[in-house]
Design goal:
The protein is an alpha+beta fold. It has a domain at 5-44 and 386-654: Rossmann fold (3-Layer(aba) Sandwich). Helix 3 crosses helix 12 and helix 6 (489-503) packs across helix 7 (519-530). Residues 448-655 form the Peptidase S9 prolyl oligopeptidase catalytic domain. It comes from Nitrospirillum amazonense. It holds the Pfam family Peptidase_S9. This is Dipeptidyl aminopeptidase/acylaminoacyl peptidase.
Length: 671
């Protein structure tokens, strides 16, 4: 089970105090939660610059950066050769696609040109990499993502057709780049969803991934290959997948071998396919892939010289290795990264990627493969924290509810101790605890430094980021724990960690709050409705009524609940039993809820319903809805308001006065 509880306590208690004997005289004694912190909500919002869609063309990297100060706009940038960056688009461009609503794969850099989806109209645009006025390529009514170059005259793309009423149609299309107004020619549309159109180096074959309702891409997908003909595609050949196997990330090597990631061994590992035969490249109890929430996910790159540079996750931590793809021999690189995404090749001995660090904000980095050294190309939020102020993630494994077979089980989390060198707590006081629940729910918490976590720890809160059963990074069997048990397994794990940390002396169970967004918001509501463990909760655009969500959500997730809960409508009774809205009698702890007014994933009605019901019942409740926000807040003003409101809320509920000057929040029914 990893470290025993006593060992965990011994290891972490020094972090809880945040000081040594030498510094004790220099610190102030103040109750947890009241510590003054230099990490303001405005500073936090400034750090919330997201990096994504890293591409390389001619050895030059290009990527997207979100701009909270510009209402969350995504800009296309590249290094300027002087240690900075050059933005290639004006403020009128927001390079973000809405395919699957979660997007991803909005940018392509190839042949000296950029191709990107613009959020406002979802049309595909192009412009020279050197800069210039973007020109529209496609008509309105269609969305595009995950495009790759075919020939100099056309692209292969994932297209989502919204030109007619009813459910959108997803397909692999060939798009003529020299024919503005072309919506694309459908090459494959025989499934509900598609991803990863990848032509072979000789241009004669196309590989792609497809799946259909009720599966999600981490459940069952199929990898196809077909000949490219003047008429389109020949008869497809199934390479892998098809039943309880998640196959992702096909890539062709220069010799015509097709590589892909599959979880057929319980772990997402790397495989090779050639002449109808498949072999495992490097069997390992580690995850070389991840959940395809965003299109264009890349966790490995082929060098073309018999090697792959690959990210893999083991026990929640990411690593980078150089693999001989013929023999499977691997060399792990000694790098300070704890999170890695967007792996690309920039040269024969050079890779680029987006890296997360334990003590610094995410950055675009380059890695020299032969030496294992790295350089930071861009850290959008460069303002560093004093090392003594940083609370580093400590992985923990804790006992949770036994499985259906009665066997003992453990779950995983990352614990962050309250840390601020300027303060110490009164002797004997344990810190209030924030249990953070990630979204998805098929996703994972990572130990990369997150300023939104440091905001709390620097004020005297302990934070635990739970990778409950169902999370990725621990194999398919762990991921499948949530099948049919959403609202049960996740709640059990979120409550079990409170007792574990309280007994270890690392948190105060009497001041435990739970917070989460989207699926994490649902777990927050379910935990408040079905248990008495938490004394407060913060729900960010979470699900309150499962049946309503099954009836009213976007195509990508419209059958997701079939596996997480039960097939609908046959399982209506299960939906009612798991819906917090149907368990109002169980609520007593105060709740604050935040919601985007334009959320198409979890519509505002979900939040409004539970808030109004609890208000009528007499439960202390607060509600803030943000105009112009969708699923997840991207505007600086929204981020600041939500963070400060949540801190104010906890201060009122737990009876402490934050050091910050905060705008008030109307909390109904609070005496």
């Amino acid at each position: 089970m990893g470290l025993k509880r006593a060992a965990v306590a011994a290891l972490l208690m020094g972090l809880v105090t945040g000081m040594t004997d030498a510094t004790a005289a220099e610190t102030k004694t103040a109750a947890y939660g009241t510590w003054a912190s230099p990490i303001t909500a405005a500073r936090l919002a400034g750090s919330e610059i997201r990096l994504g869609d890293l591409m390389v063309d001619g050895g030059v990297p290009y990527w997207l950066e979100s701009r909270p100060a510009e209402k969350g706009r995504f800009a296309i940038v590249t290094p300027d050769g002087k240690g900075g960056i050059r933005e290639l688009t004006g403020t009128e461009v927001n390079a973000r696609t809405r395919v699957h609503e979660y997007g991803g794969g909005a940018l392509l850099a190839t042949g000296g040109r950029l191709y990107f989806s613009n959020f406002a109209d979802q049309r595909l645009y192009t412009m020279p990499e050197a800069g210039g006025a973007p020109q529209p390529l496609t008509p309105e009514g269609y969305r595009y993502a995950d495009c790759v170059a075919g020939t100099p005259r056309h692209l292969y793309c994932v297209r989502e057709d919204h030109s007619e009423k009813g459910e959108a149609k997803n397909a692999i299309v060939s798009l003529a780049v020299d024919q503005p107004g072309d919506a694309g020619t459908v090459l494959f549309g025989a499934s509900d969803f598609v991803a990863y159109p990848r032509p072979s180096p000789d241009g004669k074959r196309l590989a792609w991934v497809a799946w259909s309702h009720p599966n999600m891409p981490w459940d069952t997908t199929t990898l196809y290959v077909a000949d490219i003909t003047p008429q389109g595609l020949g008869s497809p050949t199934v390479v892998a997948g098809g039943h309880d196997e998640s196959v992702l990330e096909p890539q062709w090597d220069a010799d015509g071998t097709l590589y892909f990631v599959s979880d057929r061994s319980d772990w997402w590992n790397l495989y090779a396919w050639r002449d109808g035969a498949t072999r495992a490249v490097l069997p390992k109890a580690a995850e070389f892939g991840g959940p395809l929430w965003n299109l264009g996910l890349t966790t490995y790159a082929l060098t073309g010289k018999g090697q792959a540079v690959a990210r893999y996750a083991a026990k929640g931590l990411d690593h980078l290795a150089v693999i001989d793809i013929k023999t499977g021999a691997a060399r792990q690189l000694d790098l300070p990264f704890v999170g890695i995404t967007g792996v690309r090749l920039a040269g024969p001995d050079q890779a680029v990627m987006i890296a997360g660090f334990a003590d610094a904000t995410p950055a675009v980095v380059s890695v020299t493969l032969s030496t294992g050294t790295h350089a930071v190309l861009r850290r959008p939020a460069p303002e560093s924290l004093e090392p003594a102020l940083v609370s580093r993630a400590q992985p923990i494994e804790f006992p949770t509810t036994p499985g259906p077979d009665g066997q003992a089980r453990t779950a995983h989390a990352f614990y962050y101790a309250p840390t601020n060198p300027a303060f110490q707590a009164p002797v004997g006081e344990k810190p209030p605890l924030l249990v953070k629940v990630h979204g998805g729910p098929t996703s994972a918490a990572k130990p990369s430094m997150d300023m939104s976590v440091q905001y709390w720890t620097s004020r005297g809160f302990a934070v635990v980021d739970v990778n409950y059963g169902g999370s990725t990074g621990y194999g398919r069997a762990y991921r499948n724990r949530l099948r049919g048990t959403w609202g049960i397994t996740d709640v059990q794990d979120a409550t079990a960690v409170v007792a574990y940390l309280d007994k270890a002396g690392l948190a105060d169970a009497n001041r435990a709050a739970i917070r989460g967004g989207s699926a994490g918001g649902y777990t927050t509501l379910a935990a408040l409705a079905l248990t008495k463990v938490f004394k407060a909760g913060a729900n960010y655009y979470g699900v309150s009524d499962m049946e309503s969500l099954a009836k009213d959500t976007h195509k990508f997730e419209s059958r997701y609940l079939d596996s997480l809960v039960a097939p609908y409508p046959a399982g209506k009774a299960v939906y009612d039993a798991r819906s917090p809205l149907h368990h109002l009698d169980g609520f007593s702890a105060p709740l604050i809820t935040f919601q985007g007014a334009e959320d198409a994933v979890v519509p505002p009605a979900q939040s409004r319903s539970i808030v109004n019901a609890l208000k009528a019942k007499g439960v202390p409740v607060a509600y803030i809805e943000f105009e112009g926000e969708q699923h997840g807040f991207r505007k600086a003003d929204s981020i600041i308001r939500a963070q400060e409101a949540e801190l104010y809320f906890y201060g009122r509920i737990f009876g402490f006065t934050p050091a910050d000057t905060l705008p008030g929040v109307a909390i109904d029914n609070l005496k």
